[in-house]
Amino acid sequence: MAEASRILQTSLIPNFHPFHKTHISQLRPAVTSFRRSPSTNIHCSSVSTTDQNTKTTPTQNAIPWGCDIDSLENASALQKWLSRSGLPDQKMTIERVEVGERGLVALKNIRKGEKLLFVPPSLVISADSEWSCVEAGEVMKKNSVPDWPLLATYLISEASLLESSRWSNYISALPRQPYSLLYWTREELDRYLEASRIRERAIERVTNVIGTYKDLRLRIFSKHPDLFPEQVFNLETFRWSFGILFSRLVRLPSMDDKFALVPWADMLNHSCEVETFLDYDKSSQGVVFTTDRPYQPGEQVFISYGKKSNGELLLSYGFVPKEGTNPSDSVELSLSLSKSDKCYKQKLEALRKHGLQASQCYPVRITGWPLELMAYAYLAVSPPSMSSQFAEMAAAASNKSGIKKDLRYPEIEEEALQFILDGCEFSISKYNKFLQQSGSLDLDVTSPKQLNRRLFLKQLAVDLCTSERRILFRSQYILRRRLRDIRSGELRALKIFNALMAILSDMSHVKGCNVTNSIE
Ligand SMILES: C[S@@+](CC[C@H](N)C(=O)[O-])C[C@H]1O[C@@H](n2cnc3c(N)ncnc32)[C@H](O)[C@@H]1O
């Protein structure tokens, strides 16, 4: 899943908008993990988040293909089929693992810098793959459907053909219900992720999946009901196929950035320590990745799904790395212009010129915040007398390159830092509220199955919120310290100034006296 991850960090754009790039690499054990007990069998009943017309019914929820997320039976059938179909002998095998339930484990000693996998292009699913139902493929291509919706439809089409599809062994080993926020209900997102910006990202993603499905239905499926019957091509099957794409699709740089599902390679789990990624290797003519560390027999082999925050990993893959283990972790801090600002309109206009809004989100990391955020803060606090600088502040607050970002306005530095601190503290208070309440959130659940699911989702949310709050705590500490320094510096300067003034006034008093005296 090297590259699969690249795509996942982007949001799905309806109406066939193309997806952006992402990155994938690889890794090793020890780092990540959410404690998912294999015995905790969670069956999520998914419901559409926003769209009433396309709300799913319970009967639609059961996807008649795929397997339980930890099924080794189907995985070993996949392994046998791949070997028969041209996958060379492997130094890894699929096993049940601590991190990620199923994963690839070293069978032999593996050296650092060794190439692994060698999945031939004939075993890779991409937009160019042949459709078992040739007519359906032709219709999709005639309509120039972009890669993501095309692949989502392809997967459903092949899955519905069961054994008649050449991919049946692959599809049988895919999770029946991928872990992903796509499977959280709106109520669950609101309940557990209220404090985190990931909630909005998840809602947006679900909305986009629904939009994409409706678009396909309107433009294509409704015109060819024989090829795309609604019993098969419906919102629930699209939720599944997009869930699979979000958690497994990769981009292969050496294959013209082709998006692909790479059977076998997509059994590799993620760890945050590795930076190499899957790619097509021209010399061996297969999809490979190069290890960046040695592995011993029995050790799980990892890749990286890209430099993603914990929230992004939860969004696409349904897990949260252990607190403090993800160097790419960040939290979205939301800041807004004050409506009571005398220059609100002027500032908003300046922001809009650069594609920004009155409220903006910026990623804050444990190591600090971006220059863009500081520029936005300057703009938000700047007085009317600085209106001639609004344009440069707004430009620097945007993510456009080639613009000077490291602006400094010492005269409003303190206000700007206080503004960011207020934003952090407001956000922290939301996390505090959720984390304090989280113990009592599930008391009303009576069904044990539902309780399992709820506890599981809640634990993910608690892990995410704890890691996001930790970053904010750090920022709060840094901001308070800087403000204290500024203020104590100012105080010192003020004291010196006052002392000087006192001396001067004494002197003039003495002089005055002298003058008076002399006049006298
Ligand atoms: C590309 S698949 C990897 C293979 C997957 N474990 C399987 O058995 O099908 C990605 C999925 O694996 C799981 N996963 C990967 N890395 C993980 C990690 N570090 N911790 C927990 N789950 C992980 C998540 O369920 C994720 O959606």
In short:
This protein is mainly alpha-helical and 520 residues long. The chain is 43% helix and 10% strand. The chain has helices at residues 4-8, 58-61, 72-84, 134-142, 147-160, 168-172, 186-192, 198-219, 235-248, 310-317, 344-352, 371-381, 390-397, 413-437, 448-519, and strands at residues 25-26, 92-96, 102-106, 115-119, 125-126, 250-252, 258-261, 269-270, 279-281, 286-290, 302-304, 330-336, 359-365.
Describe this entry's structure for a reader:
43% of the residues lie in helices and 10% in strands. The chain is mostly helical and 520 residues long. The longest helix is centred in the last third of the chain and has 72 residues, at 448-519. The radius of gyration is 28 Å and the shape is elongated. The structure holds S-adenosylmethionine. Residues 1, 32-34, 99-103, 175, 178-179, 247-248, 266-267, 269-271, 317-319 line the site of S-adenosylmethionine (SAM).
Low-confidence blocks of residues = 2-60, 512-520
**What Rg do the Cα atoms give?**
28 Å
Write down the CATH class of the largest domain.
Alpha Beta
SS field, number of helical segments: 15
How many domains? 2
Structural class: mainly alpha
The proportion of residues in beta strands is 5-15%
CATH topology call of the largest domain: set domain protein methyltransferase, domain 1
CATH architecture of the largest domain: Alpha-Beta Complex
Strand arrangement within the widest β-sheet reads 1-11-8
What ligand molecules are bound, each kind once? S-adenosylmethionine
Q: What portion of residues is helical?
A: 40-55%
- Following the backbone from N to C, one meets helices and strands in this order, namely HEHHEEEEHHHHHHEEEEEEHEHEHHHH
Mean of the pLDDT scores?
A: 86
- The gross shape turns out to be elongated
State the separation between the terminal residues, measured CA to CA: 96 Å
Binding site for S-adenosyl-L-methionine: 248, 269-270
Protein name: SET domain-containing protein
GO cellular component, one term: chloroplast
Domain SET: 90-306
